[in-house]
Write a structure and sequence with these properties.
Order of helices and strands: HHHHHHHH
Radius of gyration: 16 Å
Shape: globular
Helix content: 55-70%
Number of strands: 0
Number of domains: 1
Strand content: under 5%
Length: 176
């Protein structure tokens, strides 16, 4: 099968991103994911917060499907960015835990398209739930709006990003 037609598979075990025994590198890559997530949320802040939101950074939520160190990186990045969101401790705790749970589930999905489902579903329910309470907006509206924003970020931005990154990883691995 030609290289460009090969089905994309997640990186498991030892890989370009997470070689066994490379704790400093793993921590550094996790920190880079955290920093990039927080940077994207804050750079697009008007779109990133509130009952109707489109977090460009949520495209990164598919990274756990490719490499495990993205899971804590996304959690920390979400925690840091939610410090600046204006919704206080509720957003910091529950938003970050929703991201952590979604990242953990994403890591376990059988395909890239399925990997985009946990961030959409978990955030729509959890974030939509507390935003309804905090913003005094009907629950179905916040769940729908957060879910649609998540779906856009994950399926329209995240899936192509993950495909591109997987191609780069495969080429790097083939050269090594």
């Amino acid at each position: 099968m030609p290289q460009d037609v090969k089905e994309i598979q997640p990186v498991k075990g030892s890989s370009v991103f997470s070689p066994k025994g490379d704790l400093p590198g793993t921590i550094a890559r996790s920190a880079l994911v955290a920093a990039l997530y927080a940077l994207l949320v804050l750079a697009f802040a008007p779109l990133s917060f509130g009952p109707v939101q489109f977090r460009v950074a949520e495209a990164l939520t598919l990274l756990p499907w490719l490499f495990p160190e993205a899971v804590p990186g996304l959690f920390v990045g979400c925690l840091v960015s939610n410090l600046f969101g204006g919704l206080g401790i509720v957003d910091m705790v529950f938003g970050s835990l929703a991201t952590l749970g979604a990242a953990w589930l994403t890591r376990r999905m059988p395909s890239l398209l399925w990997a985009a489902v946990p961030p959409v579903a978990v955030n729509a329910l959890v974030v939509g739930g507390y935003l309804s309470f905090l913003a005094d907006v009907p629950l179905p509206s916040t769940v729908l709006y957060v879910g649609l924003g998540q779906a856009g970020a994950c399926f329209l931005l995240g899936v192509p990003l993950a495909k591109l990154l997987q191609k780069v990883l495969n080429k790097t691995r083939d050269r090594g």
